[in-house]
From TrEMBL:
Name this polypeptide is given: CubicO group peptidase, beta-lactamase class C family
InterPro entries in UniProt: Beta-lactam-related, Beta-lactam/transpept-like, Diverse_Enzym_Activities
Membrane in keyword set: no
The Beta-lactamase-related domain, residue ranges: 72-327
Keyword field contains Signal: yes
Keywords carried by this UniProt record: Signal
Region forming the signal peptide: 1-24
């Protein structure tokens, strides 16, 4: 993520707030009384207009996205697809979205009593090629989950030439720094404490119960760079429609067909600001999730972001889940402001509901 200039931020805020103003039209608008969950396949609205959306404005948003080179877009309201286009079924790297996926697994095992977030790197036996200092070893799991470990060691799977703060310049818990070392070590710690591989655990606890259509644990991989660090990155390939399903699980507070898959309390904790970030007052960070404040969107929202401005956004108050993939393999990226502007333009198409039970049809994903 990078800083946005003030002019671009102001224009984006105005656009987003105007889009979200439709949410106040009626207190239970957009069919919140009936909250369907997709079974083995997704449903989509048979008629945008009857579901309370403007088809011409949705089409204009699509034209804008296509002009930017977006490769896949999916917008879900109330568990039903409003619109989708592009390659929403193909597997592609999710890059840093992987961190939010891991957050869900941590929540499950914290609730089981297997993981204690106050455990330190020293107690866990974590070290690296360049030996960690006593102070660095005092960093806790909670510090890593909030990207405040204070350990500025080289890490696998980070951009070449990345300039980190000097080692020892911050103590654990003092400074937020988006650091792949923290995230990679969280993967190692998870596997040590639970005895499970990340990709198999995700399949068992999340992908299979919510009936992801394309996920296979075999598409997960470890990225080793032993000359930099002992700790590998864990890389994941997923489809856009499976990412949307994961977002819907979080929008539903971890509950899926009567089963509490991810603890509701953990979802609330992990998507609540734990630390400010140096990208402006509209951003904060929780436990491996990014967060928008209400002053920016008109409603609180949380999101996962990956290289190339891949996005998974959840707006709980609107029952909205949004996924955007810039490219199947990132041959061309869409910048962060543009990625969010696609969603803003889609939200301008949102009108008051015209019926409480709009007809749905099976999604085809052509």
């Amino acid at each position: 993520m990078g800083c946005r200039n003030s002019t671009g931020r102001s224009a984006f805020i105005v656009l987003f707030l105007s889009a979200l103003s439709f949410s106040a039209v009626d207190g239970q608008s957009h069919h919140k009384l009936n909250r369907p969950i997709p079974d083995t396949a997704w449903q989509q609205y048979a008629s945008l207009e009857k579901a309370g959306w403007s088809a011409p404005q949705v089409n204009r948003a699509r034209q804008f996205a296509d002009s930017l080179g977006a490769k896949a877009v999916m917008l879900v309201e109330n568990g039903v697809i409003v619109t989708e286009w592009g390659d929403n079924t193909g597997l592609a790297p999710v890059f840093s979205i992987r961190k939010s996926l891991l957050s869900a697994l941590y929540g499950i095992y914290i609730a089981k009593g297997v993981v204690d977030t106050t455990m330190t790197l020293g107690a866990l036996g974590i070290d690296d090629r360049q030996k960690l200092t006593r102070i660095e070893k005092s960093a806790t799991i909670a510090d890593l989950l909030t990207a405040r470990s204070g350990v500025y060691h080289p890490a696998a799977f980070e951009p070449p030439g990345m300039q980190k703060p000097d080692r020892g310049s911050s103590v654990p818990g003092q400074r937020w720094y988006y650091n792949n070392w923290d995230f990679n070590v969280l993967g190692v710690i998870f596997e040590r404490l639970t005895g499970q591989r990340i990709f198999q655990a995700f399949e068992e606890h999340i992908a299979a119960p919510i009936q992801m259509q394309d996920y296979d644990s075999g598409w997960g991989a470890y990225h080793y760079q032993p000359e930099r660090s002992r700790h590998p990155a864990y890389t994941i390939r997923m489809s856009a429609r499976d990412l949307a399903r994961f977002g819907l699980l979080y929008e539903r507070k971890g509950l899926w067909e009567g089963r509490q898959l991810v603890p509701e309390e953990w979802i609330a904790r992990s998507t609540t600001p734990k630390t400010d970030v140096p990208y402006g007052q509209d951003y904060a960070y929780g436990y491996l999730w990014w967060i928008y404040g209400e002053s920016v969107l008109g409603h609180e929202a949380f999101f996962a972001s990956g290289s190339g401005s891949q996005l998974l956004v959840v707006i709980p108050a609107l029952d909205i889940v949004y996924v955007m993939r810039a490219s199947a393999e990132l041959e061309r990226g869409v910048n962060g402001l543009e990625a969010r502007e696609i969603l803003a333009k889609l939200l301008t198409a949102r009108m008051s509901a015209t019926g409480s039970h709009p007809r749905t049809i099976p999604a085809t994903f052509d």
